[in-house]
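dumping this here so i dont lose it
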């Protein structure tokens, strides 16, 4: 006799307790929206190709029926199939590349598939009987179910509702056409079986896509963030600085950049150990993170014990304000460290209009801020925080940095 701990009932109970975990595959609202938009964007080329293929196959079916399949479709029914089903699919495929925004794409796809299901049901209800039932009825409906599961990129619960609606519409159309009972039960069995298998496949596929989505987000975060402090890393700093400079040039806004270096950090590590140094770097990073709360602002770990802060849309003395604010915030935090700060202000008229803002431009701005940092470091009184600031002169060129 098995013990309560090893019998099958506890295992079944554990599965039952986890039923909500397995059935609920949605994220929180903001992340769910981002996942939906990402999924639809990735499925957009596949959906366009599927719509074109479906429309062409319907045209081929009408031609085959007219030439070889025995004229099961009347001219009116052929026109409905081509004009009410194939034509909207082709038009929708043509609008997919650029015209539909992700926020509207999901509802447009759902409306198109629902319209196609309604048109198919109306068409199947009027098909002439052959052998006691309309020909090609459940086969055509199965094709629609598979298309909805494979190509549309809809969320699982939308596909579930759509498949249920298709099944009900098919049953209603066959009852309206007075189909015989035995062929109808045969068709319903196969339609239900294929729908169930398609839904299971769609559920597992979406679950796998969600796991991949989370994995990619986590991997992307690790690539964008410094592993010790959680601030932006150097790669993200360059991208953020370039974006801020681009926006500043376009909108005529000034950008302030500050380089921060911990004074005598090697001596601090020798005294308190590397773990103590890491803890204080994380505390310093937390303080700097408080200074950036706008979309185009950025705080980053530049290298070792050197950090960088980018402020977008500042006043004419924004570089000095940024340097003093960094100094005051660090003093209020009570860190057992002193820092040197070198800041620079980049105004929109300081760039050469003949070239775009690129990686070299960001390098020059950071190099100039670094120069200001080390000038401040050399000029500081011992055991005091040093602050140095400047407005970037003239156009951003190597000569400006060298002559400074």
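and the seq i came up w/
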């Amino acid at each position: 006799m098995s013990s309560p701990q090893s019998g099958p009932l506890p295992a079944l109970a554990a599965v039952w307790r986890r039923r909500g975990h397995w059935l609920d595959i949605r994220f929180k609202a903001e992340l769910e929206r981002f996942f939906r938009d990402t999924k639809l964007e990735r499925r957009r080329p596949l959906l366009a190709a599927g719509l074109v293929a479906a429309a062409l196959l319907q045209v081929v079916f009408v031609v085959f029926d007219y030439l070889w399949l025995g004229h099961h479709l009347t001219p009116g029914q052929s026109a409905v199939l081509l004009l009410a089903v194939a034509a909207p699919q082709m038009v929708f495929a043509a609008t997919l590349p650029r015209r539909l925004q992700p926020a509207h794409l999901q509802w447009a796809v759902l409306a198109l598939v629902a319209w196609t299901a309604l048109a198919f049901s109306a068409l199947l209800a009027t098909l002439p009987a052959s052998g006691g039932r309309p020909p090609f009825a459940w086969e055509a409906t199965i094709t629609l179910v598979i298309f909805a599961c494979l190509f549309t990129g809809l969320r699982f619960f939308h596909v579930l509702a759509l498949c249920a609606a298709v099944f009900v519409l098919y049953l209603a159309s066959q009852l309206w056409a007075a189909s015989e009972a035995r062929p109808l039960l045969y068709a319903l069995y196969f339609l239900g079986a294929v729908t169930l298998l398609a839904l299971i496949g769609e559920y597992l596929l979406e679950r796998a896509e969600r796991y991949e989505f989370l994995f990619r987000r986590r991997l992307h975060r690790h690539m964008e963030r410094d592993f010790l402090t959680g601030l932006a890393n150097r790669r993200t700093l360059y991208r953020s600085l370039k974006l801020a400079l681009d926006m500043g040039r376009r909108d005529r806004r000034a950008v302030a950049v500050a380089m921060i270096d911990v004074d005598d950090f090697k001596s601090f590590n020798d005294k308190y150990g590397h773990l103590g140094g890491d803890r204080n770097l994380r505390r310093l990073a937390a303080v700097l993170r408080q200074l950036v709360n706008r979309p185009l602002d950025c705080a980053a770990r530049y290298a070792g014990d050197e950090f960088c802060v980018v402020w977008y849309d500042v006043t004419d003395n924004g570089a000095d304000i940024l340097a003093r604010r960094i100094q005051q915030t660090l003093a209020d935090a009570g860190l057992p460290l002193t820092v040197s700060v070198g800041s620079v202000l980049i105004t929109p008229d300081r760039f050469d209009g003949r070239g775009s803002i690129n990686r070299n431009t960001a390098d020059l701005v950071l190099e100039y801020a670094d120069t200001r940092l080390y000038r401040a470091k050399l000029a500081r009184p011992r055991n005091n925080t040093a602050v140095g600031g400047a407005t970037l002169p003239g156009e951003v060129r190597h000569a400006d940095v060298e002559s400074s």
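The chain has a mean pLDDT of 76.
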